[in-house]
Specification:
The structure holds 2 protein chains of 2 kinds.
Chain A lengths: L1 H19 L1 H37 L2 E6 L5 H13 L3 E7 L1 H11 L1 H9 L9 E6 L4 H10 L4 E5 L4 H41 L1 H9 L4 H38 L2 E2 L1 E5 L3 H31 L3
Antiparallel strand pairs in A: 1-3, 1-4, 2-3, 5-6
Helix pairs in contact in A: 1-9, 2-7, 2-9, 2-10, 4-5, 7-9, 7-10, 9-10
Chain B lengths: L1 E11 L5 E11 L3 E5 L6 H8 L7 E6 L2 E2 L8 H5 L2 E5 L10 H11 L4 H14 L15 H13 L5 E5 L7 H17 L3 E5 L3 H7 L2 E6 L2 E6 L11 H7 L1
Classes of the chains: A alpha+beta, B alpha/beta.
The complex binds adenosine-5'-triphosphate (ATP) and magnesium ion (MG).
Chain lengths: ~300, ~240
């Protein structure tokens, strides 16, 4: 009961202090708001990038064309070798007949062209190999090229690697920016709290004199940071929920091409909101804790 | 019954100033003690050690069974709850009313409002400010402000009331009023009062125990004493430190 009363009075004091030092409190709140908007953007960006990367990674294939005179034994040999390679996810053999009928289905021009060849199939047998990771692409292709009966082994010519590399860099970059912003914000909050500590110097002195415990003295300031953090996260959360939902609906979930699909907004935006309010309040508390530790020598 | 025991206590500030040298003194429950001496003689330092605003450099300070020298920072509040402190500059919160200023002490201790109210009204009443509970400090005279500070100091029924020059900012007439209140508190609730002062007249009139400091040394301890000027004790201090 006693602890509860101290808690309740601490919360009341923190609200009082926030409104009494309104300009300063607003500055902190705006600062948290800006930080959290950027955090939110980077969350949306990196989650979507991860999604896109996953989609692309699904397409991580090396296409192997076998020479025209390949024998059945040689096909068996390469198949057996593929089975033992552990960086290979799966593979599919596509015979030239299969290839041909596929092409015939695809266009009538090609169908008539094949007919004019009178049963002669100029196409090659192929194996479509899916690797587990981008970094396996090059190595696998090179390995497969070493067979005498392999005509060629090709993959996205570095395109896929580049895109994924760029996405990785974006993710790391945004994470770095977010961390920097969080640090800057906690210092700003600790400054705000420092000023409220100084403006309540007499109050703190009296509290100590009348025998308030250290926790009871520190609590209002920690709450103040916490509340600033919560206030600061309101706008970013609204922007995230509405902004992302609208973006998703407007684009129907695709960006530029059908390959780049967006993460569906629900429950995604709620997860992001939760992360934002957690970061806001934790940063607020850390900021005020730093200040309380430094300026309340108790 | 002994409330305070100080034995062979030294206080040497970080800058090397010896503010208290080899002090040994005992104070019983219910006593009224004046602490006198010229400026810089160590009165405030002595008082600050009693409520653990300063830590003794050496020796023992025991207040109400608590060994102040060994008290950890995080446990200081346990000592503070047993005593009240009044200063020359009142230390009231300017934006709070008389009632709120006194209640503030109990609120931070987490008492329920139902318990706070009667205690606060009783304390305000005992300093004679019943009519002014809703006033702000700047609507009060200096004497009245000091009475609010006293009410705040006694609201939790402390065994010990420590006053550092409580009448330092007040005219003789108002000082007398404050002294009457302190004496009443001392007699009615058997609260031990320790009061540092420069006011010779006051000390002479009250006929209480007097501890006289000079250059950090306790030079006299007299029952029903008065404010005397003692010869310099610089030599003693040199010998001891
Ligand atoms: N925080 C401090 N740091 C260093 N020296 C101090 C400190 N506080 C007091 N002193 C020194 O200790 C000595 C005793 O000071 P103290 O305040 O106890 O005297 P006092 O008797 O209360 O004087 P006054 O009558 O002026 O209030 C003085 O020489 C003073 O300069
Ligand atoms: Mg003094």
């Amino acid at each position: 009961m006693k602890a509860l009363r101290i808690l309740r009075r601490s919360v009341r004091d923190s609200f009082k202090s926030i409104f009494r030092n309104l300009p300063l409190s607003m500055a902190s709140i705006i600062c948290i708001t800006i930080t959290l908007i950027l955090v939110s953007l980077s969350l949306f960006l990196s989650y979507n990038v991860r999604q896109i990367t996953k989609t692309l990674e699904h397409e991580l294939t090396v296409v192997v064309y076998l020479k025209k005179d390949v024998t059945e034994n040689q096909k068996k040999e390469i198949e057996n070798d593929l089975k033992t390679m552990d960086n290979i996810d799966e593979y599919r053999i596509k015979s030239k007949e299969e290839f041909k009928s596929e092409m015939q289905k695809e266009s009538e021009d090609l169908a008539t062209a094949f007919e004019s060849l009178e049963g002669d199939n100029p196409l090659l047998d192929s194996i479509i190999v899916k690797v587990k990771d981008v970094s396996d692409l090059k190595e696998t292709a090179e390995k497969l090229r070493k067979y005498d009966f392999v005509q060629s082994a090709e993959y996205g010519e570095g395109m896929v690697e580049n895109i994924i590399g760029i996405f990785d860099a974006i993710s790391i970059g945004t994470a770095g920016i977010v961390i920097a912003l969080v640090v800057v914000t906690s210092f700003l909050i600790s400054n705000t709290i420092k000023i409220t500590i100084f403006s309540r110097k007499t109050q703190i002195e009296i509290k100590r004199l009348v025998g308030a415990s250290n926790v009871a003295i520190k609590l209002p300031f920690v709450f103040e940071g916490f509340i600033l953090g919560i206030f600061g996260s309101i706008l970013p959360i609204l922007l995230s929920i509405y902004g992302y939902t609208i973006l998703y609906n407007e684009t129907h979930g695709y960006l530029f091409t059908r390959i780049i699909t967006l993460v569906p907004p629900f429950p995604f935006v709620f997860i992001v909101s939760f992360i934002l309010v957690a970061i806001g309040s934790i940063v607020g508390m850390i900021g005020s804790w730093l200040s309380v530790r430094k300026h309340l020598k108790i | 019954m002994r409330l305070i025991k100080v034995e062979h206590t030294y206080k040497i500030y970080k800058n090397g100033t010896t503010a208290i040298a080899d002090l040994s003194v005992s104070i019983d429950k219910g006593e009224f003690v004046f602490v006198i001496g010229p400026t810089g003689s160590g009165k405030s330092t002595f008082i600050k050690m009693l409520y653990r605003e300063e830590k003794p450099t050496n020796g023992q300070v025991i207040v109400g069974g608590i060994d102040v020298a060994k008290l950890r920072n995080s446990k200081v509040y346990k000592l503070r709850r047993k005593l009240g402190v009044v200063f020359q500059d009142f230390k009231l919160l300017p934006k709070l009313t008389v009632y709120e200023n006194v209640a503030f002490a109990l609120e931070t201790l987490g008492l329920p409002n139902s318990e706070i109210r009667p205690k606060v009204l009783k304390a305000i009443d005992s300093v004679g400010l019943k009519e002014k509970t809703r006033n702000l400090p700047n609507e009060l005279s200096g004497g009245e402000q000091q009475r609010v500070a006293i009410a705040r100091a006694i609201v939790n029924d402390p065994k010990l009331l420590i006053c550092d020059e409580p009448t330092g900012n007040l005219d003789p007439e108002t000082s007398k009023e404050i002294m009457n209140i302190l004496e009443k508190i001392n007699q009615e609730s058997d609260t031990t009062i320790i009061m540092a002062t420069h006011d010779k007249e006051l000390v002479n009139k009250m006929k209480k125990r007097v501890l006289a400091f000079e250059n950090g040394v306790l030079v006299s301890d007299t029952k029903k004493g008065s404010y005397k000027v003692h010869e310099s004790t610089k030599d003693i201090k040199k010998k001891r430190s």
